[in-house]
Each structure stands twice: as structure tokens, then as C-alpha cells.
Design a protein that fits this description.
By secondary structure, the protein is of the alpha/beta class. It folds into 2 domains: 252 residues, Aldolase class I (TIM Barrel, Alpha-Beta Barrel), CATH 3.20.20.70; 67 residues, Alpha-Beta Complex (Type Iii Antifreeze Protein Isoform Hplc 12). Helices cover 34% and strands 15% of the residues. β6, α9 and β7 form a beta-alpha-beta unit. The N and C termini lie far apart (63 Å). 36% of the residues are buried.
Length: 342
Amino acid sequence: MKNLLSNNENHPIYIIAEVGVNHNGSLELAFECIDQAILCGADAVKFQTFKSEKLVTKYAQKANYQTENTNSAESQLDMLKQLELSFEDFVLLKRYCEDKGIDFLSTPFDEESAEFLNSIHIDAFKVGSGDMNNIPFLQKLDSYGRPIILSTGMSNLDEIGESLQAFKKSEVLLLHCTSDYPAPLEDVNLLAMKTISTAFNKVTGYSDHTAGIEIAVAASALGARIIEKHFTLDRNLPGPDHKASLEPADFSKMVLAIRNVEQALGDGVKRCMPSEESTRAVARKSIVMATPKKTGQQLTRKDLVIKRPGTGIEPKYFDDLVGKQLLKDVHEDYLLSWDDVQ
């Protein structure tokens, strides 16, 4: 994760496969998600660590998207209990990620879970948008001094600023996002990512909840240094987040598209690129002779014409050639050089 804290555009965009709770409470499914995320080219796989009773009350209602994608009769608490992994499970998942060479991240949703993740030396905390204004919780996370990736869904600039005040020890990275699943395109407001970056001078990225891969790729082109995208093995599995996630085939396409965008962005220096050199010689034009002329004769405007190829004297020197004396006989369409005149 050493490049994650750098705003250096030469460092690759950091791509997070957000498994979240798409393991459906199964450790084996979680392992398989890690394996597939690696094959897709993700830099990190991220989970959600929580104790259900410490996250929601027994009266808490589900979000609309959760109701649509799960048993509408059950409470949010009942739903979360089915999606909960034990701390021991996360120890195994972190060790598995280390063995496989992919970064392990998780979002804690309560202080006990945060304390546990710190105890296993997680590299960075991801904070979901639901807790981005939970100042006591943010201060608790700051006490560990680990990097913080803070999602900013459902917030404005003032609220982001207030949240950042909670951090005295931790380096904070900000993710723009729209907290709907899937997020409607008209609410994505992708340019807000650049607003956030300018306002707070932080490493900034995008947590994508839209359907498909286009918006994540667009965010990469706009300067996102981190892309987070929900990841599932099968969008038809039961659970609240599968429908708003990418399956491995599409996640791979997203990663490839982002890497292609990175390559295409270049260094920003406008110049003739190596692949253009041969086209430049053919497509550009030079000053050539319109008629034959003899040695010693002076060139007039009527003697000169501009044609391809572009390997001779550039057209911008047309007026400089007028009045020059020829040092050799030349024929029609002869490509002039400076050695031909005095």
C-alpha cells in the first residue's frame, strides 16, 4: 500500500474490490472472492467488520435497496446477523490475502470491530459514508494513527471539513460517492470529486455505486487515485449488495479499462509522440518547386507551392525562400532544402 498515500499521478490508480458482505456470511465464499479479485487485477479486497447488535437497534429499518433485494419481512438487524463474519474469520482472511499478495482492507462499523482490526495491524481503515460524520468514532480511529480512507456520500463540503478536524494523527484519503445502490447517473455528480480534491488537498478517489463500469473509468480519467467498486461472484445471489456489484468478468473489464486510461493519460507534455513520427513525415507538407528552374535564378512566389511530404522545408518559411538564389537546377515538384539556396 506504499503508493496509496501519494498523489503522484505516476503511481497506478489503487483499485479496491469491495466484497463488503457479498460473502453472505460464508468464509469459503469470502476466500473465493479473494481469489477472483486477484485474477481480476484488484490491488485490494475490502470487507465489512461489525457486530450486528452494536451496529443497529432491533427497530432499525432497512434502506430501500436492502428491502428490494432481501426478505422484506426481516429487520435490518436480522439481515446483518446473517452477513456477519467472526473476528477469527477475519484473521484467516487477512492471512490469506497476505499469502496471496493482495492488500486486505475492512470497514469497521463499531468500536469493538475497530479495536480488533487495529489489533491485527490492518494497513488502513476504510470508513463508510454512514460514519463520515460520526466524530467520536473518527477520533477513535485516529487514535490508532493508521491511514484512513473516508467515503463522503450524503455529505457536503462543510461536513467533510468537520470530519477532517477529527483527525490529528492519521493521514486521510477522501472518496467521492453517491450512497444509493445502484446510484442513478444524474446523481453521480462526478465533478464533485475534483471539487473535494481542490478544497482539501487530499489524495482523492471515487467509490462507485453505479451499474456498469463506465463511471469508474471516467473517474479515472478525471484524476481519481483510488477506485472502489462492489464485487460479487454472482449478482443473482441473495443479499443486499449483489445487484449493485460487478461479477468477475465485468470487474476485469473495468480494471483493464482503467489501466488503459492510465496509460493514455501520459505526462501532459504536448509533443510529437514516437508513433506519430512516420505519419508526420507523410501527412505534413513542405515547400516544393511549382516549375523547373536553373542554377542562379531567384525564386519567386509563383515558383513555389506547398505539397506533401513533410520532410522538406516547412511551409512557415515560405516568405523566407522568396528571393533566394538557386544553387542547382531543380525540376517541378522538387523538394527544396536549405542547401539548395543562398
